[in-house]
Prior knowledge:
By secondary structure, the chain is an alpha+beta fold. It contains 13 helices and 56 strands. Helix 3 links the parallel strand 21 (272-278) and strand 22. The chain is elongated. The N and C termini lie far apart (140 Å). Residues 1-32, 34-54, 302-306, 859-872 and 884-927 have low confidence and may be disordered.
Amino acid sequence: MKKTMIAILIIALTMINLCGTAVNSAAADVAPIQIMDSSTTTNTTTSSISTTNSSSGIIISEFLYNPLGLELDGEFIELQNTGATPRNILNWTLSDQDGGVDMVFQNITLAPGEFAVVHVNCGVSYHNASEGSWYLFMNKTSSILTGSGDDILLQNSTGYPMDFISYGDGSSVDLPPMELGQRSNLSFISEGYSYVKEGSEWSQSLPTPGSSSRNIGGVLITAVCPDAKLGGEFIQIMNPTNGSIDLSMCGITDGEGLAVFEKGTMILPGEVMTIADNGTRYYEMTLQYPEFSYTGISTMDSLSVPKSSPTMANDGDEIFLVSTGLDVADAFVFGDSTHSGEGWIGPAVEVDGSYQIVKRMMINGTYLDSNSSLDWDTYKVIKAGQSSATSGYFQTSGHTTAFVSPDCSMDAIIDVIENAKVCISLNLYEFTDAHLATSLRDALSRGVDVRILVDGSPVGGMPDAEEELLSWLVLAGADVHTQNPSGVKVETRYNFNHAKYMVADNSTTIVMTENWKKSGVPVPGTTGNRGWGIAIENDDLADYFSQIFYNDWKADWEDVCEFEPNVVSDIYEPIKEKTLEPIFEQQTSISTSNVTAVIYPDMSLTPEDPLMKLISSAEDAILAEQFYIDLHWGKRNADGTWPQLNPYLTALIDAARRGCSVKVLLDSSDYNIKFEDYNDNDDTVAYLNSLAEAEDLDIEARLVRSGTHIFTKVHTKGLVVDDSKTLISSINWNENSCTRNREVGIIVENDEIAEYFTRVFGYDWKDEMDKPIPVIVATGIFMTNMTINFSASSSISEHEISNYSWDMDSDGIADSFNMNITWAFSEPGDHNVTLAISDIYGNINHTYLIVKIEAPVNDLDISGPGQDQTGSMEETTLTSEDQNTTGSMDDVGARNTGDDSHLAILYVLPLLVLIGSVVWRKLRKSD
């Protein structure tokens, strides 16, 4: 099957019907592609012949002597006025010198550059002024351009020879007129090809009757699907130049078959055209019509049946885009092909499986074009029908609400559902939570339109609980579809539909890291996964995600089915008993946010990959909290080595090498740290920490100690960059998730949101949750109705203290939440002052201070320590630390047993002495 480009010249061509079809095509719509075919092999060596232009400017510019099929259906001779002035050719003649004149021209004037195409067979002559061409007919019933060789003589009205050409076997060729001198004879060329004159040289070409030959350099092959079942092969070409390019009579070939663009086919600047083997099959795979097809439907022609179309062998082949002169404008070589020649250098492109689309790569908006496999992206397996979403950038000024599981995610989601009035679009990998389903059913009862898309074949299969829940919602009026439906054998566009997002009323978008399961969105006060989520009010953002959703959800796709409900009873799940106090509440920002949509696999590992750009933008710090990060990508080699380090992990390392501080927190569940697995979370942590030590990098990685926290595992897929940008997504950092799954994420540039998730990360990062140490400092005169200052400012905590709670009268009710308070006791005696403090991660501790209050002694003048000349007192200071009253969270209610209350009494005695002294002086005066 392999042939050199010389062999391409031996291609069979399905020629344009130059008789009746030529007339019809002048007025009809442009047909998509014309197929030419050949079953014979001939000498393809092209001779060039140098001639002197006719003094009249009228020359023989092209001729076809051996067309496909019947000779008369395709033979033609083309004249062109190459001069600068119009020329009339009345009574000029054409002949092959074998039996008189074959053609006498009528009163025809050729403008400069115009053509006169003389067809041998029958037809009605006409002039196409827009093309600058005359189409004329000899009305012969037998060939004049014999296959064994012949000559063509052009004479003016006086019989003077104006131009001459000959080809083939010398015994069949008459000599040129003496007036034109000796001329060389052209050699034979392949069936279906014409001879065309370019300058003073003749060369083989695709036939271009009525137009000049053209070079289409600049047009590129940008995508190829070389291996698709049921006739699904296709290629895409693109015009990256600033001007329109005429593709007329240029072609697509695999070295055997050839498809030729009909006259008038233009490709505009930036335009992409698809050429499909079978237009109907292409539509089934992509839900789009190709511009051209060999068979089946297309936007240009409903049906075109070829004699021999270009096809690509699954194991390897070549495809070429060629100009009319058969120059290779571009090439794609793949599989086991060893082709090397015009348009290609080096090894072939490696292709991985059927329905894969191999795409040409771009850098900074410009296609790579080295004519080699280096131009083509083979790392990502792109399949027919996958979307090609471009990055969406939005500026929001509405409410942006951050939330986390297990603390407050359910309330955040239900708030949005309950406020929906028109429609809800929900895309989830798994959906089994009855509480959220009940909220959706309530929305349905309010008349809200609910559409749901779930993965039909999650790992382990769709659980019975999900089938029951979805059936319940369908029976209530929801439109539920499954992607990758179980038991349906179709080629799937994505390995898994792993996205987790919702759009309500085309105004609010929720993006999460969690599935709607008990563990992913727990009932408030119960435990579950650590997950991140965000709700953003912005119409444009919601519209963007609505379009992504609808394109994935619609059942026109082969891999999407409507969910068939089962008969079920009401879905009910009792509210669990609260077992913990949530630490983080929802936080809403009304500041302006810059938002970037992240749609995978469309954007992954491209120059515009938002996740890569986010990491690359880091200047100071990156916090990465992930369910898992595979250390390596690709299949392990036989020698135990790996072909590639995870590219996203590499980006984190590069950030550290730039001077950024990088912290990586990964889940520690058993299945993520298997001893026998050399590529999971514990291996990633070990690698990063060893690299940090070896290169003195500011990287630290650890496995979460989930028993220390309120959640069961880390299921997050998030980043915080430079305290300002936050990623929330469904994207796990493994090869399948990034390159083969439908994944969705969002990047929010907002300092308040980043600060929220930084606090969450800080809590999750801590291995030990040391409780704060409360300290009470009391200063004042400890007598009834005297103001005493109490302060908690000396309390000690590793983290920010978020709450102070004072109980001054032992009734169990907080009397103040300030760090410092003043208090007066109206009754003498021992008073318990209780202080409880908590840090930002919810760690709580208590302490107690026993304050002894004395009643004043009247009418005494007693001198003692602390008295001054005016009779004022020094203040007393007590601390809970002095009394050793600090207690732990586990011994709430314990009291200090140390007896330091005499300290207060020591300072009351001077007051009694002072009072006694005053009384004594008064008594003496009265005496």
